[in-house]
Amino acid sequence: MVMTKPLALVLYENLLPGSQLVNRLHDLGYRVLTLADSATLVEQAQQTKPLVVIVDLVAREKDVCAAILALKRNPATAHVPVLAFASRKHAKLQAAAQSAGATLVASDTAILHQLPQMLDQVLMVE
């Protein structure tokens, strides 16, 4: 039996910390599919069935929190844990992500330093 690597769907617009996050996920044994547009998040999650979705809340023209909400409201993707991040100066965005249904919301610096622990936390079965 062949075990495939778990898939992480990563949504980010800004190269840093986005690319660093992708590299960390590869190091942790994940396959990574990156998205630059939150409008395709639900569709991609339905098609690819990721183990986890990781989203950068800071986007120029997109409402990433609306995408999280749509993901959580869709019966086919509601179970997928969402790890959202933004810098501490975006406290309102962080709160909005929590309200939208993000499993865990972190700062952009914390996610890079504590990714394995955060993944363990969001992947814990209720």
Note the main attributes of this structure.
single chain; 126 residues; alpha/beta; Rossmann fold; 6 helices; 5 strands; 44% helix
Q: Spell the H/E element sequence.
A: EHEHEHEHEHH
Q: Write down the CATH topology.
A: Rossmann fold
Oligomer: single chain
* Tally of DSSP helical segments: 6
What strand order characterises the main sheet? Answer: 2-1-3-4-5
- Strand share of the residues? 15-25%
Report the CATH C-level class. Alpha Beta
Low-confidence stretches: none
Estimated structural class: alpha/beta
Large-scale geometry:
globular
Mean pLDDT: 93
Estimate the helix proportion, in percent. 40-55%
**What's the number of domains?**
1
N-C termini distance: 28 Å
CATH superfamily: Response regulator
Question: Describe the biggest sheet?
Answer: 5 strands, parallel
Q: Based on the structure given, which CATH architecture is correct?
A: 3-Layer(aba) Sandwich
| Strand element count | 5
Radius of gyration: 13 Å
What does this molecule look like?
By secondary structure, the chain is α/β, with parallel strands linked by helices. It has one domain: Rossmann fold. About 45% of the residues lie in helices and about 20% in strands. The chain contains 6 helices and 5 strands; from the N terminus they run βαβαβαβαβαα. Strands 2-1-3-4-5 form a 5-stranded parallel beta sheet, with helices on both faces. The longest helix is centred in the first third of the chain and has 13 residues. It starts with 6 loop residues before the first strand and ends with a helix. The mean pLDDT is about 95.
